[in-house]
């Protein structure tokens, strides 16, 4: 009975949050196909191991943990294959849309190491609480707070450098 409850909770959670999962995966890989692959692979991993979930209330953080780790794994695999023309292609595909305000912020976020980037994305883009982020990343709350502070500080330094250039 407990296993069925976890599986039911997982299916309901996945069905209700697929746009959020895609957005989070896309924030890592900046590519539609890869983001969809990450979401699909995460769902497969979750369905395969849903029996390990003892408390259906932890489904959210458990699934986000799978999603974040899968996204990071994909980035690590692609690191050697990354093409620099993606930014140019993305810029040209925007047409006449002005995006000056977000460009520096987006680039500063991209420059961050995974440990900081993950926490900032989950906190500010997924609107998660520090406790939820700690559960997802497997770190204690103080570590999450420290990484959030340091990540924001690194972004601030990066943005200040760009202003001075």
Automatic annotation (TrEMBL):
The keyword Translocase does not apply. This is RNA polymerase sigma factor. One of its GO terms (biological process) is DNA-templated transcription initiation. The keyword Cell membrane does not apply. Keywords: Sigma factor, Transcription, Transcription regulation. GO terms for molecular function: DNA binding; sigma factor activity. Residues 21-80 form the RNA polymerase sigma-70 region domain. Gene3D superfamilies: 1.10.1740.10, Winged helix-like DNA-binding domain superfamily/Winged helix DNA-binding domain (1.10.10.10). Residues 104-155 form the RNA polymerase sigma factor 70 region 4 type domain. PANTHER family: RNA POLYMERASE ECF-TYPE SIGMA FACTO (PTHR43133), RNA POLYMERASE SIGMA FACTOR SIGV (PTHR43133:SF60). Pfam families: Sigma70_r2, Sigma70_r4_2. CDD domains: Sigma70_r4 (cd06171). Belongs to the sigma-70 factor family. ECF subfamily. The lineage of its organism: Bacteria, Bacillati, Bacillota, Bacilli, Bacillales. NCBIfam families: sigma70-ECF. SUPFAM superfamilies: Sigma2 domain of RNA polymerase sigma factors, Sigma3 and sigma4 domains of RNA polymerase sigma factors.
